[in-house]
Design a protein that fits this description.
The complex is a heterodimer of chains A (62) and B (301). Chain A has 62 residues and is mainly beta. Chain A contains 1 helix and 7 strands; from the N terminus they run E-E-E-H-E-E-E-E. In chain A, strands 2-1-7-4-5 form a 5-stranded mixed beta sheet, with no helix packed on it. A two-stranded antiparallel ribbon of chain A has the order 3-6. In chain A, a hairpin with a 2-residue loop joins strand 1 and strand 2. Chain B has a single domain, classed as HUPs (Rossmann fold), CATH 3.40.50.620. Classes of the chains: A mainly beta (62), B alpha/beta (301).
Chain lengths: 62, 301
């Protein structure tokens, strides 16, 4: 899959739920929103090889 | 769901009345911008006025962008907007205040536990928001604090053993006409829901963190609470609901005998006799133009 985390693009072999993906990436669910193929997706959504997943950090200090 | 919770919170805590003039503390970050939009929506059903205040602390590379978002959003919604700058009001930017304080101490704090920039910023920001709201003749000062902020503040006060400070989190110990009543309509809305709402409404999300944020104890507590929330969902709600249950008892216990003094320098309400925290801070940190700064605060009286 094509993965974008904080505007950084990478390729990743993964298939499973968004929630497990975030765990694998070491990202806290509480601090991000996730877009799958351009649309906002719940953490229960399933993603795979053909998907474009974007993880956007939304919790900042300040 | 989002709008329902927002309106329910406003109703439950009797935050707004018909005809109120509400000043929104608008940083341009997602929470305060979502608050501005939600209040503008509510205004369609309840007649009240909205104005917005932005405090420009003078943090290089951080505030410029959110200030632009704040201006754009106010223009879009037709809301009167006023910007107060630390530099013109207190005589120095936050960057300079921090630099001066560090120079005076011999070195920067450098420790992870150091909370100094945030403490200085908090005192100055609260003071100027209150002063600004009063200048704009607002009845209420609406803050964008969300459920996460509230849970963090409750935990921080407990961890620092400051129950008296916790007691006045939602309501001041003593009523004073010079304090504009603060309301927090998003206090029961999780931060992540604000972000989702902002995204769905097309509100620009700020992706820059305050350069001083890593100094703050709050950042540490935020991390702990987010980790706990992931393992035990509902934790933040439970913390805030526990506080709301205890609030009455805490307030009546700690408000006994509390009196407000008047700052000898600026005339604003002060916790103790003498000089208020704001005046002490802008003087002790070597804020150059103290006379101008204090003269400015006096004009707002």
């Amino acid at each position: 899959m094509e993965l974008i985390v904080d505007s950084e693009k990478k390729k990743l072999q993964y298939s499973g739920s968004v929630s497990s993906l975030l765990k694998k990436l070491g990202v806290m669910r509480e601090e991000v929103i996730v877009k799958v193929n351009g649309k906002l997706a719940p953490e229960t959504a399933e993603v795979g090889a053909k998907d474009k997943v974007e993880v956007i950090k939304v919790v900042f200090g300040g | 769901m989002f709008d329902k919770r927002f309106r329910k919170t406003v109703r439950k805590f009797s935050m707004l009345r018909k005809g109120d003039r509400v000043a929104v503390g608008l940083s341009g970050g997602k929470d305060s911008t979502v608050l501005l939009h939600s209040l503008a929506e509510l205004k369609k059903d309840l007649p009240f006025e909205i104005v917005a205040i932005t405090i420009d602390e003078g943090i290089k590379g951080y505030r410029e962008r959110t200030l632009r978002i704040a201006k754009d959003e106010c223009k879009k919604l037709g809301v009167e907007h006023k910007v107060y700058k630390f530099e013109s009001e207190a005589g120095k930017t936050l960057d300079t205040l921090v630099k001066n304080t560090n120079a005076k101490r011999g070195a920067g704090c450098g420790k992870e536990s150091c909370d100094l920039p945030c403490s200085q910023c908090g005192v100055l920001r609260r003071y100027l928001l209150n002063k600004g709201a009063r200048e704009l003749k607002a009845d209420k000062l609406a803050m964008g604090h969300n459920l996460d902020d509230m849970a963090q503040t409750v935990m921080m006060n407990i961890m620092r053993n400051e129950p008296a400070r916790l007691a006045r989190l939602n309501e001041p110990m003593v009523k004073n006409a010079r304090f504009v009543t603060r309301i927090r309509p998003l206090m029961l809305t999780p931060e992540k829901e604000n972000a989702i709402y902002a995204y769905l409404k097309g509100i620009e999300l700020e992706h820059v963190e305050c350069p001083y944020a890593h100094f703050a104890f709050r950042s540490h507590v935020r991390r702990i609470l987010n980790e706990t929330e992931e393992r035990y969902p509902g934790t933040k709600f439970k913390i805030v609901n526990s506080f709301l249950d205890m609030e009455g008892a805490l307030h009546s216990h700690y408000s006994k005998g509390v009196k407000l003094a008047e700052c000898e320098s600026c005339g604003e309400p002060a916790a103790r006799d003498g000089i208020c925290m704001y005046c002490r801070m802008i003087t002790s940190s070597g804020a150059g133009n103290r006379k101008t700064a204090i003269a400015k605060t006096r004009t707002a009286r």
